[in-house]
Each structure stands twice: as structure tokens, then as C-alpha cells.
Amino acid sequence: MTVEPEPMTAKEVAAPRSVELWLVDLARSGPALERQERDAPRLGRRDRAGIEALKPADARQQRLTAHLALRVLLERHLGRAVRGLDLARAQGGKPGLPEGWGPFDFSLAHVEAAALIGVTRGAAIGVDLEVVRAVRIAGERRRRILAAGAALIPSEGIHGMSEAEAFMRAWVRLEALAKARGEGLQRTLTALGLRHAGAGAAREVVLGVQRHLSLTGLSVHDLALGAGRVAAVALDRTLGLPPLNTFPVDSAGIEALLRGRNSG
């Protein structure tokens, strides 16, 4: 299905850069989002087919709800013309809007019963969300990831945490950075020097992180989601960290969100 974008108004073209963060309770928001989808589909046919092919069923349901919430937020900014639009998917990069839909970027992460969505105007964004859990990974690679994660936010150390939390916090910081760049995690790890640093080269890793942040103009922030979850967002360093909004859980709330369409 081909959808032509609505012409952008002069106000929208000149609007300043902005950023929004949304936390979605997938279990509570799911029924209302699915009812709306049955009445007025927002997903593109190709995107829906990709989700419906997923197994197992609980993973498919979580992804469906997360993407329906994302479509509501895109419609909030871009209007009803985005309904039925298939997202563009560059090989090895994150999904995005096709050309012609204005200076918007978005990032989505979901795990278990929650999703985190970031939407920006005129700047890149990357978000990641994980449940704290033990991860088996080789000792030297683990040490490099921990060193890089700590260097991304020097003021928010990861010392004093449990081993599992420290590693997952470092991981979401790196994933958020990779998503903001749209290059995939492996390319970002290479750019940071993590894939080729020698044993015990923590200082080399820190310098690689500092150089990468300087070149990209990005900064990384932790998000407080309560015990058992860790999350991070990567943004243009000139943008402040916005408040974390709670996505509506019923149809009335979703409609109210859409009526308050944000045009900048």
C-alpha cells in the first residue's frame, strides 16, 4: 500500500527539535489498541505479516501491541495519513519512516510486559529496555562491555550493583547508542574499539567511547523503571532528557492523546 505524506505546514517545517519518551504497559494497553486496529488499521500489510509470522504466541502478542502503540505515537505527530504505512527497513539498520515524512526519528524496545518508545523531531534517538538477568559471556568481552557501559555515563557508575544488573545496564546503554546511530550493535562495538581491544585494555575502551561520543554528538542517559528492569536512551547531546510519559491503557485515553496531536 502506497501512502502519500500530508504536506507539512510552515509551522511544522520550522518547529524546533523535540523528544518524547513513552512507557507502555503491554498487557493493559493491548485490548484497547487491538480494538482500534480492527476498526481502523494502522499497521502496514507487510509489517503485520512479519509480526504474525513470529513464534511463540506470547512474543508475537507483545510485539504486536508494542508496534500498535508506536503507530499511535507516529499518528500523533504526523496525522492519519501514516495509517497503513509500511516502515522502511535498511539492511542492518533500524526501521524508520520513508523519505518525505518530515524530520522524525523513533526507537522501540520491548521486553516481557513493557515497551519503551522514543520519538524525536529533527534529531536521532535510540532506546533499549531489558529485564535484569544473568548473561553468559566470555570474561574478557564482559569486562570490555562493562568498561564501555561505565564510560558512556561516567557520572552514573555501575559499581556497587549486582553482577547481573551492572552488565545489563552497560548493555542497554550500548544498545541505545547503536540504535541512535542506526548501524547495529556489532558495528557500534567495532567503532568503540570493543571488538579489537586487547586483554585488560580498559583505558583503550574508555578512550574509544569518548572519541565516538564526540564524533557523533550523542549522549546516553539511564532511565529509572524500578526494580528488575534497566533502560537507557541515546540522544543528541544538546537535547535534555525529557520526562517519561505513561501510554494510555484505554480507548478514551488513546483518543485524547491523538486529539492533542503534537506538531512541535
What does it look like?
This protein is α+β, with helices and mostly antiparallel strands and 264 residues long. Helices cover 43% and strands 20% of the residues. It contains nine helices and nine strands. The strands form three sheets. The chain has a four-stranded mixed β-sheet. The chain has a three-stranded antiparallel β-sheet with strand order 6-8-7. A two-stranded antiparallel ribbon has the order 2-3. Strand 2 (88-89) and strand 3 (95-96) form a beta hairpin. It is globular, with a radius of gyration of 19 Å.
Query: Order of strands in the sheet with the most strands?
Result: 4-5-1-9
Beta content: 15-25%
Distance between the first and last residues' Cα? 28 Å
Number of DSSP helical runs:
9
Helix content: 40-55%
Supply the helix-strand structural class. Answer: alpha+beta
**Biggest sheet details:** 4 strands, mixed
Question: Quick recap of the structure?
Answer:
With 264 residues, this protein is of the alpha+beta class.
List the helices and strands and how they pair.
Layout: H1 10-14, E1 18-25, H2 26-39, H3 45-52, H4 57-78, E2 88-89, E3 95-96, E4 104-111, E5 114-121, E6 125-131, H5 139-152, H6 163-181, H7 185-192, H8 202-216, E7 218-223, E8 229-236, E9 244-246, H9 251-259
Attribute tags:
9 strands, 264 residues, single chain, three-stranded antiparallel sheet, disordered N terminus, globular, alpha+beta, four-stranded mixed sheet
